[in-house]
Amino acid sequence: MKRYTERIHRRLAAVFSAFCLAMASLSVRLYTLAASDRLVEAAGSQRSYTLTVLDERGMIYDCGLNPLVGTGESYISAVFPTPGNQQPVLDAVPASRREAVAEMLEAGKPFTLRTDAPIEAEWVYCFQSSGRYAEDQTAAHLIGYLDYEGAGLTGIEAAYDSFLSAHGRKVEVSATLNALQQAIPGTRPELRVSADAGAGVVLTIDRGIQAAAEKVGGEMLEKGAIVVLNPYSGQIKAMASFPAYSPLHLEEAVLDEENAPMLNRALLSYSVGSTFKVVTAAAALETLGAEYCLDREYTCEGYLDVYGQRFRCHDRAGHGELDLFGAVQNSCNPWFISLGLEVGGETLLQKARAFGFGEAFRLAEGISVSAGSLPDAAEMVNPAAVANLSFGQGALSASPVQVARMLAAVVNGGTLVTPYIALGTTLDGQTVDPFPAPVGEKVLSEGTARQLQLILSYAVMADGSSGALPENISAGGKTATAQTGRYDEEGDELEEGWFAGFFPAEDPQYVAVVLAEGEGFGNSTAAPVFAALADAVAAEKGL
């Protein structure tokens, strides 16, 4: 018995020793596992999971902090699959997507899901989102578009790319998951929204006026541009170019070489024609005197001979005897040629420069207005060159923005403002950190500016011959039909139709310029667009 007892004791001792050795080995292994950085990180990743739901570019706003981009409506959700949310999630997607979404739900791993309507279910966190651009994107030529990597390529997107890239809405959802990466009941996810979620660039554009310009121009212009300007501040309230294009269909726009819809025609230079007669009248009023100019009468015979070169009036039979009011209303070329010759080429050229013709300037960082062209001073010794400049022909070109700038000086009492497009930036979508505004320069006396306003108001309000008379508001302005030296396939010369005007006539709030590119007579192409636009803006703003 003692022998069996000793044997059992020996066996027990051996088993105990083996057990102790095994436990020691297990402890060493457990310590090694616990000390492994890789496994510690893996364990941590299993406990916490973060989904980036939104990572959006900064906004672009109008002057009232209304968004100009990202205005479409869609939704994106952070989905943490649970038995209770599978059916609501599947119900929110179309039948064509349900199989793929069902597979993600069965896998159990959190994911993001874009839908047309919000999802209301447990462990689903939904946020309103949208694409950057709409199909009928407003102010597309001005705003520009992004490249394939999401960087600004043209327009405001390019001009303020660094700010827009660095600021915007970012939303993250973090949740505690189990080892199977499933939501742990009883816990709540952590929601993180970037502090500058409302950040963006604020433009001078007024969304309502911009919409009016795009609607009127889209219905009435084949090619051309519309610019609406605050004549006192220089802020551009609308800028539209036609034909329009969609940033969602860039390839289609690029291939349309005939219409070139991606050109921003508001910034390009064209022959300006009779809109320049405002400058000629201004130079005469300040050089020859208001009394002389207002009393001056001239008989238009349908042409004027200048040292053997005949300049014709658009009325080949002649307008007969006209004063300054009648000459502007009838846009009589010989009347203004004779007046320009009295003023002199050098004085006329100096006044054109004072009004900003021939000068390039920036609307915003990276967005410039074409300088256009003026004749050289040496050319002004030639009476024919002076004659051409007097009624806006010859070596003269300007953009719609420059013509609006000229007319603004007449409206605001004689100060040449510099148009601009960017007000500043915002970090919260509610307050604006303004950019420095350009300072204007006096180019006309108050008296001359007021006299020109009266003459231009008479040109529109006296009768309907200009085609620019709105139905519901008073206005003033000047038509133009500018020769281009370019011809169509049938040999007819292409002419630019213009109207540059302001409204209301008695207390001008806006200057608006319409260019009808290659469409002919301004009183039948551009002037009716101005009239419709003035009525639309008056209705929008309660004027």
Biggest β-sheet strands, sense, barrel: 5 strands, antiparallel
Distance separating the two termini: 121 Å
Spatial sequence of strands, sheet with the most strands: 10-9-23-22-21
Mean pLDDT: 88
Account of the 3D structure:
The chain is of the alpha+beta class and 543 residues long. It has a domain at 207-541: Beta-lactamase, CATH 3.40.710.10. 37% of the residues lie in helices and 22% in strands. It is built from 19 helices and 23 strands. The strands form 8 sheets. It has a 5-stranded antiparallel beta sheet, with helices on both faces. A hairpin with a 6-residue loop joins β18 (422-426) and β19. The longest helix has 34 residues, at 2-35. The protein is elongated and about 95 Å long. Residues 1-9 and 38-45 have low confidence and may be disordered.
